[in-house]
Amino acid sequence: MTYCVAMRLRAGLLFASDTRTNAGIDHIASFRKMYQFQIPHQREIVVLTAGNLATTQSVMSVLNQRLHGDGEHLLNVPSLYDAAALLGRTLKEIIARDSHDYNGGVDFGANMLIGGQILGEGPRLFHVYPQGNFIEATEDTPYFQIGESKYGKPIIDRVVRYETTPLDEAAKCTLVSFDSTIQSNLSVGLPIDMLMLRANQFEMAMKPPHRIGRDDPYFQALRAGWSEGLRRVFDNLPNEPWFDE
Amino acid sequence: MTYCVAMRLRAGLLFASDTRTNAGIDHIASFRKMYQFQIPHQREIVVLTAGNLATTQSVMSVLNQRLHGDGEHLLNVPSLYDAAALLGRTLKEIIARDSHDYNGGVDFGANMLIGGQILGEGPRLFHVYPQGNFIEATEDTPYFQIGESKYGKPIIDRVVRYETTPLDEAAKCTLVSFDSTIQSNLSVGLPIDMLMLRANQFEMAMKPPHRIGRDDPYFQALRAGWSEGLRRVFDNLPNEPWFDE
Known about the structure:
Proteasome_sua/b (chains A, B); Peptidase (chains A, B); five-stranded antiparallel sheet; 32% helix; Ntn_hydrolases_N (chains A, B); 12 strands; alpha+beta; UCP009120_prtse (chains A, B); homodimer; Glutamine Phosphoribosylpyrophosphate, subunit 1, domain 1
């Protein structure tokens, strides 16, 4: 499985993905699930992928190949909305191609998040479904998750607000959310790729994603502090005298 | 949806279930998902249900009707293992009956937890699958969840240990786990039914389950304390200076 989170806040955008893929029980491996498309000072687009690995890799290969053609591609679409529509069409095309003759009971589906900023509009973020349609993040719902999303959802719901959450706090919350997910689900694993884009600051465009592994001192400090802190809060909550004796 | 948790600890057994059922978008209602079967001082059996409401209600009706017959039933089976097997057979029987001629794309499946103690053996706990087979809780894995289980799993993983967790702490952890689930998933709702059985103390058998609603002062104190505590721990975790400036 996979766990990916993306947030669109007033301060900017955050993307994070794990790197574990299991294609069958004896084939556990690490694959990148984060892809960047950029023109310095003009556009920055990030795609996160979850689902069938053959599908997601094919979609990304096709999108990359088309960058050199005459047609519509991620470096010439006029808006993020058009980028999401293009990603949706490509995803549908690959799923249709691969599942056409023989699918052997395999789910070829994939979910993707696409976000970023194109000069002339603000930062935007979309969740693209296997059916090719998509929804956009709003101020009320400033984040999307794909993959094993449930374990790490409560902390994001408690912390993240479009207007007020700065990017460093969003990053902290995202790593805590990954920690909860990794603790409860073996199929999500380190390292984590994380990338942040400040709103309207296209000079950030060339920074590579930060890769956070088991030995990352900040992630270690968060894990330990969160685990001890939770335990302390839990222990300090009152006990109810349920039994009379 | 539903959220149910059951734990088998050295100290005893705990069962908890929410009460929200949505059979279609405009039909949200409260139904009991906890059922007790008891013979004072001799046996105490509790069943928790999740899944298709028609299936779970039918299974419980059939199990109840058979209490008055000559055959095997929950008040005469010699062990909890046999109780789980009986529940599994009944579940399979109802699903087969209801889905036989026309299923209209509906999932008739249900998952159930059955636990308790029968005089002559220790407390036991089983998870019964829609296929009718089942697994038993062990000292390594002392709890089961059914329904919307993921949001509330991390806190249980962090806190509950078979040997050392007392029942009042298990109850506290269970309510925090419900709080996380209810915060993140609208389809799980209050009130919560909760029931605890101390190991080898059959005199508890006649206590009705405790029903915890929105106004329950203990649950309110836990919610507030947990929410504030989490926020405090989160705020005290270090921020990483991700951006240089």
